[in-house]
From TrEMBL:
Top-rank taxon, per record: Eukaryota
InterPro entries in the record: Leu-rich_rpt, LRR_dom_sf
Chain intervals for the UniProt region annotation (Disordered): 1-30
Organism: Octopus sinensis
Name of protein: Leucine-rich repeat-containing protein 23-like
GO cellular component entries: cytoplasm
Bias (Acidic residues) ranges: 1-28
Keywords on record: Leucine-rich repeat, Repeat
């Protein structure tokens, strides 16, 4: 099965929901996935081997309060698995599925991702668990989509091309991330970090193919870190941070493809003539704070830019030459 033929489950983007088990809550009652139940969960027949036999390759055992899925060790042809909304703490039985393509295990009680590398795994979603770090269990040679939103991650480190050569989409919103270091993912196009504890962008310079950046509801006041190698970045969501100076917004002038910028509920958005001033720095913008740029605003921004350039030229002419 080629990447273009993968089922739609590989592109799902469901809303993150709260599903964490509270501290001190009793251990869930044992509930093992059994033969009489698994038949209800199987679908999508596919040819195997020499094409003379068929088997089911999709399993959906979501919403069954399962605590144990060890029976899956016998279902080696499964490729697409959804075990969301259960009480699972381990996914190790999946080690026996050599053709696994897609895994959804949202809203369980997983603390550590204990699965070995899978040669074909491309889609992983484990939002709203109890995961505290991105461990080796998330590293697979073809994985391109990872959703770990709503977990307990505090730091990102050693996210590099060697371990994640194909990773394009990374969702980490609603964690407790304060620090990012040693991140070098040239294939990454979409990064979601909203509702964390970030304060800066010093880590972002190696994400040269990033197109979509969501980092709303953090504590960012400085916009250093962006550079002119980031030629594809089109969308930045910075709403509900603490950027308070237009000079910080001006640091985004190195981004030639930037068309959508959200700075709603930052102090800077209350500055006089905010929209015109920002547009004078960033003429490629189409949308600012959810409102499209008007032709009138473009005209005003052009005049502001023209006046600023004239003032700079005058200042240079007035600088006395050394004797």
């Amino acid at each position: 099965m080629s990447e273009s033929e993968l089922p739609e489950v590989l592109e799902e983007d469901e809303d993150v929901e709260e599903g964490e088990q509270e501290e001190g809550e009793e251990k869930p009652e044992e509930n093992v996935l059994a033969d009489d139940v698994i038949g209800e969960c199987l679908s999508l027949l596919e040819k195997i081997g020499d094409g003379l036999a068929y088997t089911y390759i999709r399993l959906d055992c979501s919403n069954r309060e399962l605590t144990n899925i060890s029976i899956l060790e016998r279902y080696i042809h499964l490729r697409i698995i959804d075990v969301s909304n259960n009480q699972l703490s381990s996914l190790s039985p999946l080690d026996y599925l050599p053709n696994l393509l897609s895994l959804k295990a949202d809203r369980n009680i997983i603390e550590n991702v204990d699965i070995k590398p899978h040669a074909f795994l491309q889609y992983i979603s484990m939002n709203n668990n109890k995961i505290e770090e991105i461990s080796e269990g998330m590293s697979h040679p073809l994985v391109r989509h990872i959703d770990l939103a709503g977990n307990r991650i505090k730091e990102l480190s050693q996210l590099n091309e060697e371990n994640y050569p194909k990773l394009a989409i990374l969702k980490l919103q609603e964690n407790a991330i304060e620090t990012i270091k040693d991140i070098n993912l040239p294939s990454l196009t979409s990064l979601s970090l909203g509702h964390n504890k970030m304060t800066d962008f010093q880590w972002i310079s190696n994400l040269v193919n990033l197109e979509f950046l969501e980092i709303n509801n953090n504590s960012i006041d400085r916009l250093d870190g962006f550079n002119d190698n980031m030629k594809k970045l089109k969308y930045i969501d910075l709403k509900e941070n603490i950027v308070d100076e237009l000079s910080e917004v001006e640091k985004l002038t190195c981004l030639p493809a930037l068309t959508i910028l959200l700075l709603t509920d930052n102090p800077v958005s209350k500055e006089p003539d905010f929209r015109v001033e920002v547009l004078s720095f960033l003429p490629t913008l189409i949308t600012l704070n959810y409102s499209d740029i008007t032709e009138e605003e473009r005209g005003e921004a052009y005049e502001v830019l023209k006046e600023r350039q004239e003032a700079q030229n005058t200042q240079k002419e007035e600088i006395p030459l050394p004797p």
